[in-house]
Amino acid sequence: MRILHTADWHIGKIVNEVSMLEDQEFFLEQLIEKLKNLDVDVLIMAGDLYDRAFPPKEAVTLVNTVLTRLIKEINIPVFIIAGNHDSNERVEYGASLFESSNLYIEGTVKEETRKVTIQDTNFYLLPFADHVYIRELLKDDSIKNLEDATRAQINKIKETMNKEETNIIIAHGFVINISEDSFETTDSERPLSIGTAEYVNVEMFEDFDYVALGHLHKPQKVKHDRIRYSGSILKYSKSETKQKKQVSLVTVEKGSVEIEPIYLKPLHDMRVVKGSFENLMTQKSDDYVFFELLDETFIMDAMNQLRRRFPNAMGLDYITKKNDNQVYQTGSQKSLKETPLEDLFSKFYQQVKQKELAADQKEIVESILHKLGGNNK
Ligand SMILES: [Mn+2]
Question: How far is the CA of 42 from the centre of ligand 1 (A)?
Fold first, then answer.
């Protein structure tokens, strides 16, 4: 069984006010072309099809086009589950009709986890839901967090699972190897829950021949090669700029798994560019760029000037000033209130200009503050 494991498409995603839609379309068109020559039996999308529960209409149009092409041109079964960014019910729209075209969309969690058998391999489709929903669905009051909920769901699957057969599960969530803790998260992976444990221990997935996970945006295995995240299709935040994105070609036989990463070129790379303003203005790029300026002094209108060289600039930080800012921010509210305004201004001036206010400047500031009302406490 040859599977193309993908996840976290996040169609309609906006990064720093820039829509990723064109990049997503470019990537998915390449993916379709690649699949024509890849001899794959099944395509998996392991959750977070959309970036939001109410995706913009352009995102829905793109998904509609891509899924239609996948089914009509590639003609292989496609499995999609809902992730925590998706609306379970909306993603499931039309699912029972699409099934006859080999498009399996599992949006909502069912009491009995859905199983689809392709050739000699069983696929279990476990969409994301919060533990309260699962507790009510399974009528099991012992479920106190996501880990309890997932364990209850997996135990239920195991009651009828034939271990002699090849069993694959598709799931969306934060699966960790508690004994090792070797995971990494990024800014575009929304937390799964507030206040309760959101991790699921990898142990409960041990009985499956392959576990196709979604949620973490960095491609990585969890404990074994056979339990893995394919990662998001594109870089979706500054914290993902160093990751090498892939989709995973997985060959699964009973008791053996082989992984071959497939790298597709994105329309734009996303990266961090570090340097002085002067130096950056000698460079040029269409990539999505986060600047880290090394300049000591603030540069007027830096972003707009840089945009002439980097039309897809995403953000700008002065990294030498960061430390100063942190010192400033650790000052408590109380000490801020008790500091006279002219002292605060002097500190502010010092931070921005990297030098002290001169005596004559100080006088000017004091007289202005006096005119503003005198209450400079
Ligand atoms: Mn997710």
Answer: 22
